[in-house]
Amino acid sequence: MSKRMAIEGVLSDKPMQAKSLIFMRYVTVWLLRIATETGYTPSQTIKLPLPSTPPQAFDYLPEYVL
C-alpha cells in the first residue's frame, strides 16, 4: 500500500514530471549529438544510417546512460 501511495504521489506531482521530461529531452539531444557527431538540434533531421563504427565518445559513457 505504501508503494502505491508513493507512486501516486510522484506521478501526480506535475512540476516534477515537467522537470523530468525536460531532463530526458536534454539527455536525448546530447546523445544524438554524440551519435551523429554534429551540432544536432531537435528541429533537424538525422541522416541515416549512422556510421558503422560508433564515435569514440561512446566508449566513455556508462551503460545505464545508453
Question: What features would you describe in this structure?
Answer:
It is a single chain. The protein has helices at 2-11, 14-36. It has 66 residues and is mostly helical. It has one domain (2-60). It is elongated, with a radius of gyration of 17 Å.
Any key phrases for this structure?
ubl conjugation pathway; 2 helices; elongated; 50% helix
Précis, in short:
The protein is an all-alpha fold and 66 residues long.
Q: Which structural class should the secondary elements be placed in?
A: mainly alpha
Oligomer: single chain
* C-alpha termini separation: 33 Å
* Total E-strand runs: 0
Mind summarizing the main beta sheet? none
Cα shape: elongated
User: Rg, please?
Assistant: 17 Å
Q: How many structural domains can be distinguished in the coordinates?
A: 1
What number is the mean pLDDT?
88
- The portion of residues assigned to helices is 40-55%
H/E element sequence: HH
Strand content: under 5%
The number of helical elements comes to 2
Question: Unreliable stretches, pLDDT < 50, 5 or more residues?
Answer: none
SSE diagram, text form:
Elements lengths: L1 H10 L2 H23 L30
